[in-house]
Q: What sequence folds into this?
């Protein structure tokens, strides 16, 4: 039986495709397509993991169950791209790539661990953030997940400033 | 529950038993106008001439590449070498030290006697790191967790780590810029270096931002070139032209927990050397204080700093001070990348930094000092621009190879 795409989409002009044999990633993005964040939860040690994996990084158990997770967290690190490598991003400079640490399972199972998700900073509608917004966000900013639709049943998870949260003064790169 | 602890008490019985007997390279260029096969043949032949050996004395060949280079059997054929062993492995940075370790392993296994390791790349005119010049295929699998966010080049992939180090420890752009400043001064005394102009901190921090926190001059130069190193047993190593560089220990492709996405396991400012050092130094029988020269991989100014810190040349968090207080400059306590490294000499995925340390241990650095009867008379005048870069009587060097924040290799050598 030939491999076939079960999910396809387009995002910022980039073609996206997930194959039927890439079961774990396809499942993750099906939930994203429904604007839902689900992560695998280990059937043995009950720890959540990101990104989708084929075994538990803590106990090597192969079985897991998809579980709903709240998409809110804090910016753990970030960088700001001024020179785009990919043509898709050349019209969106500067853009911010965030490393978001979810509140869920923070500092577990050890103090240096957490569920950390790479994503772009977007506005409330899921569009890549403009220069004003890019300049406002840094380490410590409170963010929430926003989905950027990329086709039927397909969306890319991103993060926007959490307007309902109290925002600390973020840490920004010193040479500004 | 945490990840299983990995045993780091590896055997030490090969300490000092192997040596590097020959090194060679092409010019470091941006526009060689030659195939990777031609460059590899040139570099291997020069390493053979450097050792003073003929084709029949080499029977093993290793190379590394990222689908951008020539396979070993054509290079060996071009030089009349019949191989008892070869392997071409996938990999960029951190491969050099790892393959030196593999060379030791295959010789010890009785598979061959003398191995040449090469890296040949048109890194500027051919395949460039992180580039997507051609029509991009659909993003799928792992690409939906990185490239879909415009996270593709090494500068982008590593910068979460770089930025977090600044946040955690107050490391400044000016401190980190010193790596480039010192390496550029070293390169100004290196006739082979692609960039020979000595630079200032202001030059670096005023150059344009590529990916904040990286300025253009925090990033290395991409070049076209080939490099080669010959390894054999120490007991044979004195039959050749130069004093051998004896290998005290080597570690290869050590990873942090979570080899897939290192930033799941923090502190993310802590790189793979933190784990690698637990084997590197005990196996060598020396510690950081006994190292005279380092070769900490400088794909970026930050990578040099993070590794020197991770391997314990300074305390965690003090990398910014260590790279800016004069320690890493020629004439300092422990110079780093005396050739100018990837930032200034040329980009070889790490091999030129090992070659430089082999020459340092021989006391035969190819700088601008005057020659007398074919022997260079080193002045130890490290003034930038056409002077000396030979360190005075070095005994022990350490190379710290970098692939990603997550993966590193290292090599400790002593004067034979």
A:
């Amino acid at each position: 039986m030939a491999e076939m795409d079960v999910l396809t989409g387009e995002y910022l002009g980039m073609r996206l495709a997930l194959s039927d044999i890439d079961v774990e990633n396809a499942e993750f993005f099906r939930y994203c397509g429904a604007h839902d964040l689900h992560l695998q939860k280990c059937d043995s040690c009950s720890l959540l993991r990101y990104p989708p994996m084929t075994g538990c990084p803590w106990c090597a158990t192969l079985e897991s169950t998809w579980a709903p997770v709240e998409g809110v967290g804090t910016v753990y690190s970030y960088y700001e791209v001024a020179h785009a490598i990919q043509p898709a991003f050349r019209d969106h400079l500067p853009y911010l790539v965030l490393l978001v640490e979810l509140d869920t399972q923070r500092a577990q199972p050890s103090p240096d661990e957490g569920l950390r998700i790479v994503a772009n900073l977007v506005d409330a509608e899921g569009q890549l953030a403009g220069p004003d917004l890019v300049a406002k966000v840094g380490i410590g900013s409170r963010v929430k997940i926003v989905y950027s639709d990329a086709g039927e049943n397909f969306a890319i998870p991103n993060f926007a400033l959490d307007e309902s949260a109290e925002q600390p003064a973020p840490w920004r790169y010193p040479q500004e | 529950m945490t990840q299983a602890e990995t045993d780091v008490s590896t055997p030490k019985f090969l300490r000092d038993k192997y040596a590097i007997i020959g090194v060679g390279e092409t010019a470091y260029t941006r526009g060689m106008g030659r195939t990777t096969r031609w460059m590899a043949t040139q570099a291997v032949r020069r390493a053979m001439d450097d050792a003073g050996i003929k084709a029949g004395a080499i029977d093993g060949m290793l190379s590394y590449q990222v689908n951008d280079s020539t396979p070993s059997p054509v290079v060996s054929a071009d030089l009349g070498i019949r191989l008892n062993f070869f392997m071409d492995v996938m990999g960029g940075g951190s491969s050099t030290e790892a393959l030196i370790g593999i060379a030791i392993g295959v010789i010890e296994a009785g598979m061959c006697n003398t191995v040449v390791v090469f890296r040949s790349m048109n890194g500027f005119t051919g395949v460039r790191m992180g580039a997507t010049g051609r029509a991009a295929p659909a993003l799928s699998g792992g690409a939906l967790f990185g490239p879909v966010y415009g996270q593709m080049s090494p500068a982008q992939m590593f910068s979460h780590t770089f930025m977090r180090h600044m946040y955690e420890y107050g490391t400044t752009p000016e401190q980190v810029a010193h790596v480039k400043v010192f390496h550029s001064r070293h390169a100004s005394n290196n006739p082979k270096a692609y960039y020979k102009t000595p630079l200032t901190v202001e030059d670096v921090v005023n150059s344009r931002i590529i990916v904040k926190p990286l300025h253009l001059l925090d990033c290395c130069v991409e070049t076209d070139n080939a490099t080669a190193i010959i390894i054999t047993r120490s007991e044979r190593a004195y039959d050749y032209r130069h004093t051998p560089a004896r290998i005290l220990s080597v570690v290869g492709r050590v990873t942090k927990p979570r080899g897939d996405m290192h930033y799941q396991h923090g502190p993310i400012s802590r790189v793979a050397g933190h784990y690698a050092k637990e084997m590197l130094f005990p196996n060598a029988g020396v510690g950081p204080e006994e190292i005279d020269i380092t070769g900490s991989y400088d794909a970026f100014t930050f990578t040099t700093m993070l590794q020197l810190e991770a391997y314990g040349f300074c305390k965690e968090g003090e990398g910014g001070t260590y790279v800016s207080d004069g320690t890493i400059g020629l004439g300092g306590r422990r110079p780093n990348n005396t050739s100018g490294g990837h930032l200034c000499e040329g980009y070889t995925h790490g091999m030129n930094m090992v070659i430089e340390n082999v020459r340092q241990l021989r006391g035969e650095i190819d700088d601008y000092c005057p020659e007398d009867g074919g022997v260079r008379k080193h002045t130890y005048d490290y003034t930038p621009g056409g002077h000396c870069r030979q360190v005075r009587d070095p005994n022990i060097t350490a190379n710290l190879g970098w692939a990603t924040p997550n993966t590193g290799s290292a090599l400790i050598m002593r004067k034979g």
